[in-house]
């Protein structure tokens, strides 16, 4: 199979300088390991558990920053959009528009994203069966979107828990859909810490290895130079210092799984 | 305990005359059975499984119709809103703004609904633990919303299935939240029919009886004079002809459960 | 519908005198409230979480005690059997042989219980779909068992949690099976307390009310004069002092649900 | 990490000659690929969905056959035991006694298996949380069993479905337990075919690859020279003709995951 690609970056655009630092670090790692990647960061955490949580710089400012990073480093950039209006604004600077999992069935948002002409990456809702992503793909195609991805990020499994069903990756690819695995959100324990969303950060590399071994198109992983002090999703992000080793292993597993 | 109240109406505003017919029929039944109720119908089915499905008359037209029905019959009306803009428009005519389950964590939508000064009814997401609705209540309170309800409508249980955990009703009430049980959406089999969302309509009365016996504040049930030809959620809606008998039993169970 | 019946008693045969005390107390309550019931207690807790837990007096001694209680009070008795040999021994004294949930698919145990000629009550495994109890019924019938019950006691729901799906009661009755709801084990939180199995005892009456409102044949509830000091399943058993009030409400709900 | 080992063989001892054929074929593949393995087959399918299903030659005959195969080929053998009596009989010939998933909490069976002095492999119940296998390990240790394995084989996920939670493998190893992944039973769809247990055989290699990439001790896979005509679990077994290629990939993934 063709080499997998990666979507890498911090959860949130904590500040402009932070975004640049993270992007430059990731880009160096990518060059050394020879991987293809997109740079990702969120401008707005629109569904935080608590109203007191950090949200971000907003769509205009956030997408400007991402656009400049992409241009300077020569990498495509991606971010999540939360309304039809945001999709339109973001599309000016953003190569791949990401639809959040809770919103994956909002027809108007899918239509707005599709109509920008940009590629679209739909996070599969925690409430959705793998085969029901075909309906999402059909919606996107009906809005003339030709270039899209589906990202698995775990399924509701009892309360305050998600399970990453590795069969889902296989089933969705069998439907002809390009499939990404989101290793850092799949290990979330939603609501598990009271007012914030907890997780099991040490598990993200474990699930990333499992997912790539099934044979998929790419891996989404959030990474942070200092997860303990991240303004959102701290416990789940891959510490930047471990990223290179993990990427090397993931590529090796990919080749081993394909019998290469 | 005080008598339970009901939220009753067809899933969708299929047409103006249909809405009036349904409202008048329900109102007669309510008068005969002595129950308190709100009239409900949706102006837009914004997250249909398929892009080809019926959506509705839209927010302006839909809320005008609902407002006129409410004024004429002297009953409060409710509908679901899907964006901050819609919330503002709907609030002109609508007494109780309903937040859809998939959107229950979208801070901007909660804020917009709260800021209208209207009462707010949040459907609990299929991915949310009962105790995590406290975070939603806290968000609403922080936006000065004093009058809100939480509606249980089932939790993701494997693929293409929801389970209505009766403990959830107890736990949420114990947190001091007013709790409604949505009997018709709790029996949905999401995605179970390929391009539409199937369900088990004969089960809605069963779950309504179970839920009222736990001791809650009210029941939400969609009803239709001809479910087989409904433009959305057909298989789950209570046939109008069975509504009166069901309401009588629910009220009797409520009193029996309270030892009255 | 015909009046529901009840299976009542302490989880374990903690001692001979304790069993007699509990049985006499329950019998008085049954007489006052006019309900039909079977007396239940376990002679061996064969699958305790920890090897250090209390297990009971064993099959010979336990069934002798239960048989004497049944004869003296004129009530049928029931207990759970864990092996073909135990089934044969127990059948001498026991009217209704209960098959534990984990063992509900062990063909040899079902056969041995059936061959005794006694009635059989199979607890539905936490891993079993409602419609798959039909296979158990078919096994029992093929072994000439004509008189059997299926007891719902919750389904695995994520880790360390069970959910009582009220639809299950409806589906199994629709298959023509007599259905009991086990209100005290359905609220277990398996493994939730480390070395013992925890639960939510205040929830058992809530689920009993919900289940009887769906329209079933009976309710199984463990009860104890001092749950806090029970030798097993303490937190889930109904305090004996609350039993009478609960039974009265359950019978009233049953009649209300049937429109009587 | 040390090379993983494998537990390989057909689901059932369909006949003596079939067992020998399968064992010789697997042994040749193992020699060519350089893997370590145990030969597995069941003498009794004790919890078949339907009473009409094939069960096997029984414990005496079955274990004699397995013992002779093990001696001749110089490989350890394993089979599942269903009662304390069976454990004792089997231990004469069998190197690794397997405890079935439904029976993983039956103290008497664990004790009997442990007391034989043989190694014990406990299949984790479909209803058990990963961390609760520690209680099983404690039971085994208290019965002087020093050499045991825990096998993950999927967790109940809604009705008629299992999910293989890859985090479970990590969590159990972190508890210091040796962990095997059962790739062929994890893809079962319990009860999914009415009177038999269906599955998704093409998924077994996918899950085996994912599991080995997480870093575990071994893989359990049933294999059959003609799955379509197997007397039990046909749809899930790995066709013998694909076994060698799969083993080679699994070993390569293991090394890639360990950064070797």
Portion of residues within helices of chain A: 25-40%
Percent of residues in beta strands of chain A: 15-25%
- The SS-based structural class of chain A is alpha/beta
Please give the largest β-sheet of chain A: 8 strands, parallel, barrel
The oligomeric status of these chains comes to homotetramer
Low-confidence stretches of chain A: none
Greatest contact pair? A-B, 35 and 35 residues
**How many β-strand stretches of chain A?**
13
Describe this entry's structure for a reader:
Four copies of one chain form a homotetramer. By secondary structure, chain A is an alpha/beta fold. In chain A, 38% of the residues lie in helices and 21% in strands. The first copy, chain A, has helices spanning 16-33, 59-73, 84-90, 107-115, 133-142, 166-174, 203-214, 240-257; strands at residues 5-9, 36-40, 77-80, 96-99, 119-123, 148-152, 155-156, 162-163, 179-182, 188-193, 196-199, 218-224, 238-239. Chain A has an eight-stranded parallel beta barrel, surrounded by six helices. A two-stranded antiparallel sheet of chain A has the order 7-8. In chain A, helix 7 packs parallel to helix 8. The first copy, chain A, is globular. The termini of chain A are close together. In chain A, 63% of the residues are buried. The model of chain A has no long low-confidence stretch (mean pLDDT 94). Chains in contact: A-B, A-C, A-D, B-C, B-D, C-D. The A-B interface holds A 46-51, 55, 82-83, 102-103, 105-108, 125-132, 135, 138-139, 142-143, 155-156, 159-160, 190-191, 195 and B 46-51, 55, 82-83, 102-103, 105-108, 125-132, 135, 138-139, 142-143, 155-156, 159-160, 190-191, 195.
């Amino acid at each position: 199979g063709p080499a997998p690609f990666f979507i890498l970056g911090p959860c949130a655009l904590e500040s402009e300088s932070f975004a640049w630092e993270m992007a430059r670090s990731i880009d160096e790692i990518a060059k050394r390991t020879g991987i293809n990647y997109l740079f990702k960061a969120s401008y707005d955490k629109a569904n935080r558990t608590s109203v007191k949580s950090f949200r971000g710089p907003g769509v205009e400012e956030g997408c400007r920053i991402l656009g400049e990073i992409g241009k300077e480093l020569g990498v495509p950039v991606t971010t999540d959009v939360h309304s039809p209006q945001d999709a339109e604004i973001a599309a000016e600077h953003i190569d791949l528009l990401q639809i959040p999992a809770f919103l994956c069935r909002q027809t108007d948002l899918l239509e707005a994203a599709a109509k920008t002409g940009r590629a679209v990456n739909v996070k599969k809702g925690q409430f959705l069966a793998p085969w029901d992503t075909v309906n999402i793909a059909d919606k996107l195609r009906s809005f003339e979107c030709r270039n899209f991805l589906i990202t698995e990020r775990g399924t509701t499994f009892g309360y305050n828990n998600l399970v990453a069903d590795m069969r889902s990756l296989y089933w969705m690819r069998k439907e002809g859909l390009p499939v990404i695995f989101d290793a850092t959100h799949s290990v979330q324990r939603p609501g598990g810490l009271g007012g914030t969303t907890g997780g099991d950060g040490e598990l993200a590399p474990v699930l990333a290895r499992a997912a790539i071994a099934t044979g998929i198109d790419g891996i989404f992983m959030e990474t942070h130079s200092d997860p303990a002090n991240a303004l959102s999703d701290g416990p789940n992000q891959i510490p930047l210092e471990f990223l290179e080793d993990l990427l090397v292993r993931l590529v090796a597993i990919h080749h081993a799984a394909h019998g290469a």
